Amino acid sequence: MTTVITVCDTCKAETSLTPDAPEKDGAKLATLVEAAAKGNESVEVRRHSCLMGCNHGCNVALQAEDKLTYVMGRFEPNEESANGIVEYATLHDKSTSGQVPFKQWPAAVKGHFVSRIPVLNTDKA
Ligand code: FES
Q1: Which of 6, 8, 47, 71 is the pocket-test mutation for ligand 1 (most atoms within 8 Å of CB)?
Q2: DSSP label at 65?
Q3: Measured from the CB, is residue 60 less than 6 Å from ligand 1?
Q4: pLDDT tens across 61-119, in order?
Q5: Minimal CA–CA distance to 109: which of 61, 64, 65?
Q6: Ligand 1 atom closest to residue 9's alpha carbon, by position in its atom list
Q7: Where do the domains of the chain lie?
Q8: Model-level pTM?
Q9: Residue 105 CB neighbour total at 10 angstroms
């Protein structure tokens, strides 16, 4: 099982220097996350246009079956952000619940958490 990183490819970073550029900050971040995740069997990366958190881009979501989901935002489209997102996703994959101890958090993700979503209870069906 892997942790899926969904990167919004239409986000504008809060501090975007080129908000009207044809390539959005989110697309730049997605390319960097894809590069950082290359060869990492713990993670998969996919792109999605708009995660509905546009006022705090760039946004990503981390999901895996039977684990907590995390939404993070306010990322700049740079290698430091991409490496931190992939590092955190790798730790998410290695954990049993999706929860990663704070002391293991990469510095690049600290202050970027937007929400944590509990596991969907599928036993009710
Ligand atoms: S454009 Fe990225 S969350 Fe809306």
Answers
A1: 8
A2: T
A3: no
A4: 999 999 999 999 999 999 999 999 999 999 999 999 999 999 999 999 999 999 999 99
A5: 61
A6: 2
A7: 3-117
A8: 0.94
A9: 17
